Amino acid sequence: FEGETVLATLHTHALVLGTMFSLLLMVLDKNYRLQARQKFDFAWNLYQVGVWFLLIMNTVRGTLEVLQTQLSTGIDGMIAGIAGTSHILLSVALVWLMLIIYRSVQDYEKD
After folding, report:
1. Torsion, CA 23, CA 25, CA 26, CA 31, rounded to 10
2. Which stretches of the chain are DSSP H helices?
3. b/e burial code for range 80-98 (CB count within 10 A of at least 16 → b)
4. In the prediction, which pLDDT does 1 show?
């Protein structure tokens, strides 16, 4: 197979969204006690679900591209829909986590 597929960005997505962001949150949690905030666990779990769905659907899409599988409109739409849902989950979770970080930093500066 020759050409560009979704698999080309899979490693970068996994590294940045899965590892780098987790490490960043770990450092911020140590300094600002993010886990003590209400709803942090829910936001973090939502983020994890979004990342896993994103990585799984990128793997599925990329593998089908490499195998040059002809997909029906319904299956293609289903894959796109699940991938889109994962992006929505990630976006909601990221905004939620950023608000938690913002409030934690504000509380830290008050003390």
Report:
1. 130
2. 10-13, 21-32, 40-66, 73-110
3. eeebeebeebbeebbebbe
4. 79
Give me the amino acid identity at 38.
Answer: Q
Q: Is 22 left (phi over 0), alpha (psi -120 to 50) or beta?
A: alpha
The parts of the chain modelled with pLDDT lower than 50 are none
Burial of 50 (0-12, 13-18, 19+ CB in 10 A): buried
Mean pLDDT over each residue of the chain, to the nearest integer: 95
Give first-to-last CA distance, the chain, whole Å.
59
62/55 Cα distance (integer angstroms): 10
- Predicted confidence at residue 111, as pLDDT, reads 75
The three state secondary structure string of 56-69 is HHHHHHHHHHHCCC
Tokens describing residue 106: 């504000």
